[in-house]
Amino acid sequence: QVQLVESGGGLVQAGGSLKLSCAASGRTFTRNRMGWFRQAPGKEREFVTATRWSSGTTYYAYYADSVKGRFTTSRDNAKNTVYLQMNSLKPEDTAVYYCAAAYSGSDVYTTSEYDSWGQGTQVTVSS
Asked: What span, in angstroms and rounded, lies between the C-alpha atoms of 75 and 49?
């Protein structure tokens, strides 16, 4: 099992930026799919972005339409950390953001495909 700890959430004005971090421990995660999901009050948890290992040091990145062009995910395997840079934030981005890891398969969009989850970090965007 991988233990995941998110950090970097907070309160920001619309148009601002935040960078979330997710530190992994307990298992090598170089070839894991690593995803970010979010859950707003009264809504289901939804896919935000993910990276999937291809070969060597190549990863593919996937984004929800709602965040394309504004959010960027990256990973530092030497630090066992994945990042979510969020720019041009909007009030509708307000949610608890979760980091997740998957050890097998290829689906990056479905929550049930992920094996480990962090505790979440709150992001609040004020208008």
From this structure: 12
Helix, strand, coil proportions of the chain in percent (round to 5)? 5, 55, 40
Which tens digit of pLDDT belongs to each residue from 52-69?
Answer: 988 888 889 999 999 999
E-assigned strands of 16-118? 18-25, 33-39, 46-55, 58-63, 71-76, 81-86, 95-102, 116-117
In this predicted structure, what is the pLDDT of residue 106?
86
Amino acid making up residue 28: T
User: CA–CA separation, 107 vs 34, rounded Å?
Assistant: 11
How many residues are present in the chain? 127
Supply 3's token pair: 């233990």
Return the structure tokens found at 69: 């062009």
The pLDDT of residue 29 is 74
Residues of the chain with pLDDT under 50: none
**CA pair distance 117, 111, nearest whole angstrom:** 10
